[in-house]
Design brief:
By secondary structure, the chain is mainly beta. The protein has one helix at 2-23; strands at residues 41-47, 53-62, 67-74, 79-87, 92-99, 104-112, 115-123, 131-140, 146-153, 160-169.
């Protein structure tokens, strides 16, 4: 039995280092992981149409530069946040949102013509059998601000605006 244990120990010693190397996760250093970095920062947020304050947001690049974390508060005190990451398997961006009302959303999308477009598909609560799509479009502007426009559709053709914000770098 000592010989069996000795052989098992030798096999483990030979196999474990290779398993440790194989288990090392790849780094998030490919260009796809940097596609949403334009949103990173501390922001004052305004209604794009009339310039009234909409809230504030802190977007941080965390977890080995693999994830953007959003912390949002609007002018009424409503707050929420999201985790955003590029998934190398499906080659899409994923955002998981939750907030102070207990809501949860899972947006999926990617970079389209220099804009980050994320969509959440879900069943309508008020119209049984209908699927609603909520879309967010993040556009980096030449002045360093970011526009976040959101709309929704029930029929996949007619889109109705939900909100339109401009993120401006917070002072101080």
């Amino acid at each position: 039995m000592n010989i069996t244990l000795h052989i098992a120990a030798l096999l483990c010693a030979a196999v474990l280092p290779s398993l440790a190397i194989a288990a090392t996760p790849p780094k998030c250093d490919s260009p796809e992981y940097r596609q949403f970095d334009f949103w990173v920062g501390k922001w004052d947020v305004f209604n794009t149409r009339d310039g009234t304050p909409g809230g504030s947001s802190l977007i941080e690049l965390l977890y080995g530069k693999c994830t953007l974390r959003e912390n949002w508060t609007d002018t009424s005190g409503f707050s929420g946040g999201s985790l955003n990451t590029y998934n190398r398997i499906d080659k899409r961006w994923h955002q998981t949102w939750t907030d102070s009302t207990g809501s949860w959303r899972e947006f999926v999308g990617g970079l389209e013509n220099g804009r980050m477009v994320l969509v959440w598909r879900h069943f309508s609560v008020t119209m049984p059998g209908k699927t609603v799509q909520e879309r967010m479009i993040f556009t980096p502007n030449p002045d360093g601000s970011v526009r976040q426009y959101s709309d929704q559709t029930i029929d996949g053709k007619t889109w109705v605006e939900r909100y339109d914000y401009t993120y401006r770098r917070a002072r101080g």
